[in-house]
Write a structure and sequence with these properties.
The complex is a heterodimer. By secondary structure, chain A is of the alpha/beta class. Chain A has helices spanning 44-52, 91-95, 97-102, 108-117, 133-147, 163-176, 189-195, 224-241, and strands spanning 7-15, 18-28, 33-38, 59-66, 76-79, 151-155, 181-186, 198-203, 206-210. Chain A is built from eight helices and nine strands. The longest helix of chain A is centred in the C-terminal third of the chain and has 18 residues, at 224-241. The radius of gyration of chain A is 18 Å and the shape is globular. By secondary structure, chain B is mainly α. The chains are: A alpha/beta, B mainly alpha. Chain B: InterPro entries: MetI-like (IPR000515), MetI-like_sf (IPR035906). Chain B: One of its GO terms (biological process) is transmembrane transport.
Chain lengths: 242, 244
């Protein structure tokens, strides 16, 4: 893995004649978590998909650059709200999917370590259908870590989970993805307040950087400043939408 | 329970059949009763078995060839835009031709024996297999393709590890349709020209006013089709689970 770079997205996107987002500059600091918070349809997922090099249906004018000048899209790992596990493959096979798709020799030892780290060692040979939602998302996280990329793109990966499982997953992911350049796209102000080392609110009017709480992420769920930040972020979202 | 309800339905159908025979008093060469058909079936069981074997072989070879052809065609269509432009309209056109109209031609080309019937069965199932598998290949849930792209999967790897597994349930439903259609194809082929098979036996019995034998052959064909359907269902059960 190359050291995690800074990442800068500069430009605007349009669908046909309609502007999706006006010219903006979003910088993701190297080795840190940036939470991009916003409502539906403001283009936050589009930004994530642009970085990943995926189809967006929108036309992007601008550039996406890594501070070390190397290619971006070949160094990203991607995790979505849907766990995207192959239903007929076992947990271990799902974790090894990337190597299989690239025709590489799978690193079985690393796979075992990651599965153990995600506390899935009792489920290695199971199919995704036999797992709970939280366990499935842990498999998806193990698969993401298996890719061992310096840039990690998370598209609302925890939003389908119940509150307790979501908090557990946030802790696990924050710890596991340390020192990588992470972009977390979310519509949950609480999640942004817990995990963001920098927090950016995106609305129709553009992006607004916000002050994250002082405590180290992942912050305690009952940390006062985190709760205040959550409130402030929600207020900002509501004002901008009005 | 399922067995019991099936038995009840069979008895009910037999009762209606017998009631019609009794009520109308139709002569047995127009409508034979269930008891007579059963008796005729038993008396002719070895002849019927022989002809059933012939039809079964035609159907099974046809099913296998048609499935392979359909799968290969669907993969080609999914893999190449040129194939879609050139071949897809042709496929639709062949489907628009009534298979009945092709049967004499196939007998002319492939002869009186096994292969003209296999060809009929293949023709009749080729389209359902191709189109269902092709649809499945083109409707991979987009999230999986996104994930594979971020993992730098080649087109080939994506097809093999993502799109084909996701399309297997569609292929399974195509194969179940095929299992129902394939016997129809073989029997049509036998009607047009043959000296063996259940279709031939039905035609022969009909020509000699042995309506009871014709019914016996027809019911045998029905039972064979149901058994085939059950076998294919069981065989495809493993691949029928949907990918979300």
């Amino acid at each position: 893995m190359t050291p995690a770079p800074d990442l800068t997205v500069r430009g605007s996107a349009a669908i046909g004649d309609a502007l999706l987002f006006a010219p903006l500059t979003l910088t993701l600091a190297a080795g840190r978590w940036t939470c991009l918070l916003g409502g539906s349809g403001v283009g936050k997922t589009t930004i994530l998909r642009l970085i990943a090099g995926l189809d967006t249906g929108a036309e992007f004018t601008g550039q996406i650059r890594a501070s070390d000048g190397q290619s971006v899209r070949e160094r990203v790992a991607y995790m979505a709200q849907d766990d995207l596990l192959l239903p007929r493959a076992t947990v271990a096979q799902n974790v090894l999917l990337g190597a299989r798709l690239r025709g590489e020799k799978p690193d079985l030892r690393r796979c075992d370590q990651l599965i153990e780290r995600m506390r899935l060692q009792d489920h290695m040979a199971k199919k995704p259908g036999e797992l709970s939602g939280g366990q499935r998302q842990r498999v998806a996280l193990a698969r993401t870590l298996m890719e061992d990329r310096p840039i990690v793109l998370l598209d609302e990966p925890f939003s389908a989970l119940d509150a307790r499982t979501r908090a557990d997953m946030q802790d696990l992911a924050a710890e596991a993805l340390q020192d990588r350049t992470v972009l977390l796209v979310t519509h949950d102000p609480g999640e942004a307040a817990r995990l963001g080392q920098s927090i950016v609110v995106m609305t129709q009017n553009g992006i607004t950087p916000c002050q994250p709480p002082h405590a180290t992420a992942p912050r305690k769920v009952d940390d006062l400043e985190t709760l205040e930040t959550q409130g402030a972020l929600l207020r900002l979202l509501r004002e901008e939408a009005a | 329970m399922k067995l019991l309800s099936g038995l009840a339905a069979t008895l009910f159908a037999l009762a209606i059949w017998q009631a019609i025979v009794s009520a109308t008093g139709l002569p047995k060469f127009i409508l034979p009763g269930p008891a007579l058909v059963a008796e005729t079936w038993w008396q002719n069981r070895w002849i019927i078995a022989e002809h059933t074997w012939v039809t079964a072989v035609e159907v099974i070879i046809g099913l296998a060839c048609g499935t392979v052809l359909g799968v290969v065609t669907a993969l080609q269509l999914a893999n190449s835009r040129a194939a879609r432009v050139l071949v897809q309209p042709m496929l639709v056109f062949t489907q628009a031709l009534p298979v009945f109209a092709l049967a004499p031609l196939l007998t002319l080309w492939l002869g009186y024996g096994l292969w003209s019937k296999v060809a009929m069965a293949v023709l009749i199932i080729y389209f359902p297999i191709t189109s269902s598998f092709f649809d499945g290949l083109m409707r991979t849930p987009p999230g999986y393709l996104d994930l594979a792209r971020t993992m730098q999967a080649s087109r080939r790897a994506m097809l093999w590890h993502i799109r084909i597994p996701a399309a297997l349930p569609s292929l399974a439903s195509g194969m179940r349709l095929a299992a129902v259609y394939a016997p129809i194809g073989a029997v049509i082929g036998e009607w047009v020209g043959s000296s063996q098979g259940l279709g031939y036996l039905m035609l022969l019995a009909n020509g000699r006013a042995k309506t009871d034998l014709m019914f016996a052959a027809m019911l045998t064909l029905g039972v064979f089709s149901i058994l085939l359907d059950m076998v294919v269902r069981r065989a495809t059960a493993g691949i029928a689970g949907e990918m979300r």
